[in-house]
Specification:
The structure is a single chain. This protein has 2 domains: 259 residues, Alpha-Beta Barrel (TIM Barrel), CATH 3.20.20.70; 89 residues, Arc Repressor Mutant, subunit A (Orthogonal Bundle), CATH 1.10.10.920. 44% of the residues lie in helices and 21% in strands. The strands form 4 sheets. Strands 9-10-8-7-6-5-4-1-11 form a 9-stranded mixed sheet, with helices on both faces. Strands 12-13-14 form a 3-stranded antiparallel sheet, with no helix packed on it. Strands 15-17-16 form a 3-stranded antiparallel sheet. α6 links the parallel β7 and β8. The two termini are 21 Å apart. Bound molecules: iron/sulfur cluster.
Length: 395
């Protein structure tokens, strides 16, 4: 099982973000009665409750995500991890990742604290190497802090360090993006995630674009950015293994690979999703989550995953990866042959250079990954018709 631990606090809300996180009040978050302490106490309680429900189930990876987990002091995070060890059978070789932001992890001392606590992989949210774009995104940090944070984490001894970048940002040109990629690569990360900007409804950035206050690069430029990014990452030895993820050999994120390979995962904290023992649910947000923990009950709204839903998930998750969908896996799950069900669609994609079907595998090409949402949308419709499931929509 994979374990996800949500830390729902950030220094300040970024202008593009739709994740569940709350700004941590200046100086008020860390005290004994502050929101962070209250949260960590409830998190410990939720962890114990799941320990009782699942016994000493084996945990192969832990991922502290958010929000901004690096806002938590290393000692507090060590205590959470200790509780994980007491509650579950945490494998000795488990990958233990933490998302960090440069505004809260810029000293060697704090970085060493997290490594001593047991974190063995850090993913640093740099997002851009341009102060103007960081400002547009509403990020708290600036480029110099990001560089300093990366170096401090390395100096502290982190041997598995990833950084996050974003492309397709307002005002960004292809040349800007190339320069940012080169700057990122000059830091020699072990892993890199490069996400195209998604405009989330209701966020200030989406509203600015809607009002015409900010312009996004053209579709053609965005395609060129994606492909050029891949070229530069791979030239530097970071090979692509998922739509937005690149790694040096041996540094793929095992936790995320586990999601894409369809392993069970338990999510702790508000808004955290879980897929476990044939059921899926998402914890409620805010006070409703505290109430759920206080009452000692699991999330009430759980969906049983039938074969049709699992087939959709299998396609959605595997087609994100460079490895693609093994046709035998589809057949084992559904009892049907993928190419019998979707032959004409597959042929059309292959002829258009958007996919490949060979050696018992169906996978998207880079061009296909660029338009993966619309490909999956069409594939899901066909699959729902084949399986007689018409109400489900891709998540
Ligand atoms: S730091 Fe991450 S989680 Fe927090 S507001 Fe920004 S994008 Fe959202």
């Amino acid at each position: 099982m994979l374990l996800y631990v949500h830390i729902p606090f950030c220094r300040r809300k970024c202008r593009y973000c739709a994740f569940f996180s709350r700004p941590l009040p200046e100086g008020g978050g860390e005290g004994e009665d502050g929101p962070l302490a209250r949260y960590l106490a409830a998190l410990g309680e939720e962890l114990s409750q799941w320990g009782e429900r699942l016994g000493g189930r084996e945990v192969e990876s832990v991922f502290f995500g958010g929000g901004t987990p690096s806002l938590v002091e290393p000692e507090a995070l060590a205590a959470v991890l200790e509780r994980v060890r007491r509650t579950f059978a945490l494998r000795p070789d488990a990958e233990i990742s933490m998302e960090a932001n440069p505004d809260s992890l810029h000293t060697e001392e704090k970085a060493r604290g997290f490594l001593d606590a047991g974190i063995n992989r850090i993913s640093l949210g740099v997002q851009s190497f341009d102060d103007g774009r960081l400002h547009t995104l509403g990020r708290v940090h600036r480029v110099e802090e990001a560089r300093a944070a990366f170096r401090a984490i390395r100096k502290a001894g982190c041997g598995n360090l990833s950084l996050d970048l974003m492309w397709g940002l307002p005002g960004q040109t292809l040349e800007d993006w190339q320069a940012e990629v080169r700057e990122a690569l000059s830091l020699e990360p072990d892993h890199l995630s490069a996400y195209g900007l998604t405009l989330e409804e209701g966020t200030p950035l989406a509203e600015d674009v809607e009002k015409g206050l900010l312009d996004l690069p053209s579709e053609e430029t965005q395609c060129a950015m994606y492909l050029e990014g891949i070229r530069l990452f791979e030239e530097a030895g970071l090979s692509q293994y998922e739509i937005s993820n690149f790694a040096r050999p041996g540094f793929r994120c095992r936790h995320n690979l586990g999601y894409w390979e369809g392993r069970d995962y338990l999510g702790l904290g508000p808004a955290a999703a879980s897929t476990l023992n044939g059921e899926r649910w998402t914890n409620p947000e805010g006070e409703a989550w505290f109430e759920q923990v206080r009452e000692g009950r699991p999330c009430a709204e759980r969906e049983a995953l039938d074969t049709s839903t699992r087939a959709l998930e299998l396609m959605m998750l595997r087609l994100r990866t460079v490895k693609g969908l093994a046709l035998d896996d589809y057949a084992a799950l559904t009892g049907r042959a993928f190419l019998d069900e979707h032959g004409a669609f597959v042929r059309r994609l292959c002829e258009g250079g958007l996919a490949e079907a060979k050696d018992g595998t169906f996978r998207l090409t880079r061009q296909g990954m660029l338009v993966s949402n619309s490909i999956l949308g069409e594939l899901f419709e066909e699959e729902q018709e084949s399986s007689g499931l018409r109400e489900k929509k891709p998540t």
